[in-house]
Amino acid sequence: MELYNNIEKIREQFPALTQRVNNRELVYFDNGATAQKPVGVISLLNEMNSGVNGNIHRAVHELSARSTILYEGARDAVKLFINAGDRGEIIFTSGTTASINLVANSFTSTFINKGDVILLTEAEHHSNLVPWQMACSRSGAELRFLPVDEHGNWRMDLLDQLLDKRVKLVSAAHISNVLGIINPVKQLIDKAHSAGAKVLIDGAQGVVHTEVDVKELDCDFYVFSGHKLYGPTGTGILYGKKNLLEEMVPWMGGGDMVGSVSLEKFSFAELPLKFEAGTPNFIGAAALGEAIKFMNSIDKGFAEKHEKEIISFIIRELSKIEGIRIYGLGENKISLFSFNIEGIHPSDLAILLNKMGVAVRSGMMCCEPLMSRYGVTGMVRASLAVYNTMKEAEIFIESVKRGVRMLS
Amino acid sequence: MTIKEVEQQIVEEFSIFTDWLDKYEYIIELGKSLPIINEKGKDEKNLIKGCQSRVWLAADYIDGKIYFTADSDAIITKGIISLLVRVFSGRTPQEIIDADLLFIKEIGLEENLSPTRANGLLSMIRQIKFYAVAFAANKNS
Questions:
Q1: Where are the domains of chain A?
Q2: What is the pTM of this model?
């Protein structure tokens, strides 16, 4: 297969990018929230909704068989994409949040007791914080936090003292949705394992911007969403090591997750279905397979070089703005930039950027504790994807400058 | 002037702006004007916390009319607030309860009232209506 090494060819795959917003060409820089969809994904969604729609696994009729093949085919595509060892290790969920909640319920009920500790970092998304707060109130376990430094880097020097014998699970983002730095997850995983703790990696941003190999990482769980990975909304993945998933008790019961059922009791289905109670979003999951095809069709060397050029351009140009502070700076920066400009409220700037056709995020980014850490009530965030161009980066910079002029 | 008439006046003021830029420059100007709430009014009790911006709203009930003062940490929000205060302040509870606020749509600012998570402005309008209902109930009891 020929790989895409040309930005125009990549953009042609995304009909949403050609629209105009507020009378201007759309510059879509809110990919950290959700990415646009390539034609392969859109076509499969349409095709299944208008024809190949039969409930999976159960029926013997043709439509069911075709849906099942597409659904299970997507599972195989995900398995290869993150280099999992077994298709039973890939659980379809509705997104990163659902995947974390699954582990926070099923892992906690099986392995976490009163007095145990769950270690997070202070830069986690609410989705990787609140489920653990809830798990702790159920189990009597405690939360502990690895701090981040001024530039958003994990304080790895403090890790050893935090990782005592009470820590049973560590859960941390591969890449923070605010800071955009690739965290030293391999180091974290190795240290946690030596201390006897299991590790969940929140890959919502990480799977989009890095090549994930769960075997090499050796994480116990890796979770991500489909919709940030150019796939449909309402799709997500929980990767878990087979031995752990086998021991864990599902937190949701229903159809498809059972072996046999009597009026009194039931037995579990084999992995992965054990954790997929009820009719899943099988059309979405199948289309996630198409999103992975798209990911595989990109020339990685080209994409990396392209992203690096844009990152250094945006950092250089933003830094020239008086009073700016960029949160999250370092060697391993991805094309995601959260910032504040002295005297300018983030929502004011985002409103004006929208009027100029530039879509960014403003506010707390579902990271209220991190906002408090930096003493702010919000930030502006520009997050780019593989289809964004240098020209768009220039428009973004010009628009920010114009917004700043209007507001100061 | 009735609430409707003040709304109509604002619609007319905004009708001279054909470009969004001029419209927002005007709102920013309104936002930069003197604080519309005194510092002691900016306490926790009057704070409406939103994901995007924070809004402070205080209400005083004098001789059957409600007087609002408000502020925000975001200038555009503050500009729009000053319009709302102009429309609502010094009105009876019933006038406020009956107001439909269609002028916000007519001047093309409805996008600022989209129900994003805990949008301060939207919560503020809800709070204004809530004060009106509360003062009306108080009067009748």
A1: 7-30+299-407, 43-296
A2: 0.93
